[in-house]
Design brief:
The structure is a homodimer.
Chain A: E1 17-24, E2 29-35, E3 38-44, E4 47-54, H1 59-69, E5 79-85, E6 90-95, H2 100-112, H3 116-128, E7 138-139, H4 142-152, H5 156-160, E8 164-170, E9 173-180, H6 185-196, E10 204-208, H7 214-222, E11 227-230, H8 236-245, E12 248-254, E13 257-262, E14 267-268, H9 276-279
Parallel strand pairs in A: 3-6, 7-14, 10-11, 11-12
Antiparallel strand pairs in A: 1-2, 3-4, 5-6, 8-9, 8-10, 12-13
Subcellular location (chains A, B): Cytoplasm
Family (chains A, B): Belongs to the FdhD family.
Pfam families (chains A, B): FdhD-NarQ
Amino acid sequence: MSDDYIIKPQPETGTSTSPMKAVDAHGNPVELDIVHERPLTVFLNNREIVTLMSIGDHPKLLGVGYLVNQNMLSPQDQIESIDYDDVIDTVVIRTKVVTDFEEKLKRKILTSGCGQGTIFADIMDKLEDTTLAQTFQFKASWLELLLNKIKATPSLYRKAGSIHGCVLCHKDKPLIYMEDVGRHNALDKIAGYLYLNDLPKEDYILYTTGRMTSEMVMKAVIMGIEILISRSGATQWAVELAEKTGLTLISRARPKRFIALCHQGRIMFDLEKPSSKAAE
Amino acid sequence: MSDDYIIKPQPETGTSTSPMKAVDAHGNPVELDIVHERPLTVFLNNREIVTLMSIGDHPKLLGVGYLVNQNMLSPQDQIESIDYDDVIDTVVIRTKVVTDFEEKLKRKILTSGCGQGTIFADIMDKLEDTTLAQTFQFKASWLELLLNKIKATPSLYRKAGSIHGCVLCHKDKPLIYMEDVGRHNALDKIAGYLYLNDLPKEDYILYTTGRMTSEMVMKAVIMGIEILISRSGATQWAVELAEKTGLTLISRARPKRFIALCHQGRIMFDLEKPSSKAAE
């Protein structure tokens, strides 16, 4: 099987898991692998933004991706440096000029405290202006190919469990496979990579093991992803936002089964029909 | 089957799900139920604290529970009023006197922005002083009883999927069963109920469908829960924090199988041993 991955999980290095001893339901000793979880504090220039819980790999991509997906870093902001300190678990991202976001946050803080509302409103404004192109055609038969490739990739999930994965695919090829304990960190690390590198701008599918909520849809749209596929389901608001912005949502993904929730126009239904006997 | 629930899911009212039309992998129309997701903005006195994404049930319990689990409301703070406005999706919690937290957050904001760091440090301080009693004995055979009762309870999960559940159990009886889209909301709603009501203070088990991360352990300990059980696994830091504070963590829970990760002293291993034939 060909491997087009740019980044994939490295479960064999062991830096994100540890072995531990426990007991089973009969009190007998068992051994298992368990994933790490450590804080990462993200700074934008001189401002402390957030502390994220992460498995600890790709901290620079996570820091940048978090800021991009919160609309705190835009393509016109030029990053001057990204410094990661693994002793105090911080990543400091410095831009050439002070970002637009910092001014907004400053004003907000003077009036009412945490900037959550501002950031949220900013993202909604950005989404209002976004409509994804509808030219990309996804063959329903690709799903089996994608899921088999992803499943065959050694991962922390297979080694230790208790972890979510997100895989950025270009057409029928998985390119970037990230995992993390935090609900959105895996996706943010992919966003960080996309921000810092010149990949082609079109025909992206994102597969996730997690549920598709409003926030996942917002992030996928900001990242320019056209098709979001989940092993799990979606919320009503996620579907509404995807409907508005032109994102195709596919839930309950199995090799030859799925439910397409909106913008089904991108899908070529090329799977063989179940035989009429089975349908009778 | 006797039913000791104080609160359980109300899937039949339909206020948290909607039917929707979609298509399957062959392009054929399908109908499914989908869970709602809407913002809830929480105010403490005059301060806007956070906007949470929720299915929208029990907004007052969610607001209070969020503040309790962030250590922004303590038992000595007297709540004067809780006002929920379903048009603008806000809940305002007013205390008799200004809370200690508000003063701390004010100072923090003057120096460096969002209060995340302060809140986190506060919770860690509180955990340092906490050691759970070790007298409660949990029979391994109770798990089958608990899981069967929970499984037999009509839920949004069974109706629409894509949702997490948390169940507060007193000994072998499920008492409060909450569901939500947000990772921690289900647990926070239980914390809100515990804060506002006089339930016995001991012998609590919490069962969750979600993974046991550091934050879940912190919240469980603050709530006085002695045994945290998950269908899924735990992170290393979750185990470390549970170890320190005296919480028993049980992962991979199935009717007659589980893995006890720490403080196994609370568990009575009363399950029949597998027959020696099977072990041979």
